[in-house]
Amino acid sequence: MRHTSVLAAVILFVACREAPTTSHDLGTPGFSALGAGSVSVVNVSRDTTAQNETPLAVNPANPSNMITGNNDWNYNDGCGVNATFDGGKTWTPTLPSGFIPGITAFTNDPSVPGTGTYDFAGDPAVAFSPDGSTAYFTCFGYKGKNVALWLSRSTDGGRTWTAGGPDHPLTLVSAFQGEGKARGSNGQFPDHESITVANDGTIYVPWAHFTGFSGHSPIFIAVSRDGGNSFALPVKVSSGSVRSDQDARVVVDNATGYAYLTFDNSVQGGKGTAMFVSVSTDHGATWSNSFKFATFQNPVCLYPPYCFNISGSQFRAPGSYPAPAFDPTTGRLYVAYTDIVNGKAQILLTYANVSDITNWSTPAIVAPASGDRINVELSVEPRSGRLDLMTNDRSYTGNTLFDVSYITSADGGSTWSTTRVTKTSWDPSAFGVPCPGCASGFRPFIGDYDGIISLPGSAAMTWTGPGKTFGTYPTNLEVFFASVTP
Predict the structure, then answer these.
(1) Which residue from 125, 216, 367, 422 puts its CA 20 to 30 A from 394's CA?
(2) Backbone CA torsion sign across 473, 184, 247, 11
(3) pLDDT score at 183
(4) CA-CA distance, 393 to 342, in Å (whole number)?
(5) CA distance 67 to 65
(6) CATH at 293
(7) Residue 43, Ramachandran bin (φ over 0: left; ψ between -120 and 50: alpha; else beta)
(8) SS3 390
(9) Contact 435, 429 (CB under 8 A)
(10) Can you give the pTM of this predicted structure?
């Protein structure tokens, strides 16, 4: 449920989610490998109501075990989760219990109450401990003006999670004290956390905190050093005089333990016009002054009716944000992002050697495309340094419909190869999430982020796409998974 830096969208956050209903059938798309790499695609969620925002994590001790999360629009109205133990071929089911307990007051059975107290939940993020023994899931809970960020744990690879309730409580990541005090009205709310676990077990959870009509949103980071049993008080990372920081993510150089935070913001008077990096050399206790490493020419903004600056029918989808990844083979911190260049949204890539985080390469377009590419995600295979990207891509249909592309480089970004992952294109403006108050019965919203991880012989990725319709409205977006061979 991430929100753009447009102030009006910030203020109207409380309209972000509605109660679930049913959906309209365009059929489930078919898939095949149409590029150089072999592709296997699986429908993960396989249910009747929408899911979107799909982070992905792999068990470092067992790469066949992965977990993905989502905003789940089923009756539990919370954060959904699915796990695989065979490399993505099959997944634990969404219905009836594929959600994180202990957050919302609902389950997917109206006659069975949930173990949480919140009206709804969102913004999933997932990770594993370094030894693979514990999976982590973070999620916001929302009830009136009360908002809290929670962490749940699984010790069986994601099959079951902390039960919730007074006997088995989730870990409170932050109470948002002081400037981060949680309030759900007038645009004052925390938003879009992410999670990173270093090899030493340190857990980093950053988020943006919108502070109301001012439009200012500093980044806060909470850190756990005891396996998620507790979190230190959040630390604010400032970018100086700029406003509306968001899209915070942390990557770690495990050789040094240094953590690198990237985020974007709106320079005074602008929208999403710059990206910053901050460094912690003490496991998240303190952070350096933020350094501006790149600027957008014309950032993608897909948040109708406030902004929609690509062609075609409107839908809500990710804007421009930095996706970082660290390459231990070269000591480079890479950042991929989207920007509108010559009328088309393109992927750009820049990097710095962490020995000098103030010296960044000139951003270069990745595999220039004939259609818009949005929602880029980046990862690095740590043994070889292979760069893997995924993107929603309109290059196959004359810049009209969506596909997913996998783009990879084995030489640090000098050359790229592209594989079309999806065989059947689709129109994101024709599908969405339930919206009983909307004339159409649904709100086109595909989520604000996807997931990608790099394995030695493949890349794995998750995204939101259309599923079979059950009912009147096209509200059955599904989670899809692909394994792609470079």
Answers:
(1) 125
(2) positive
(3) 42
(4) 16
(5) 7
(6) 2.120.10.10
(7) beta
(8) strand
(9) no
(10) 0.90
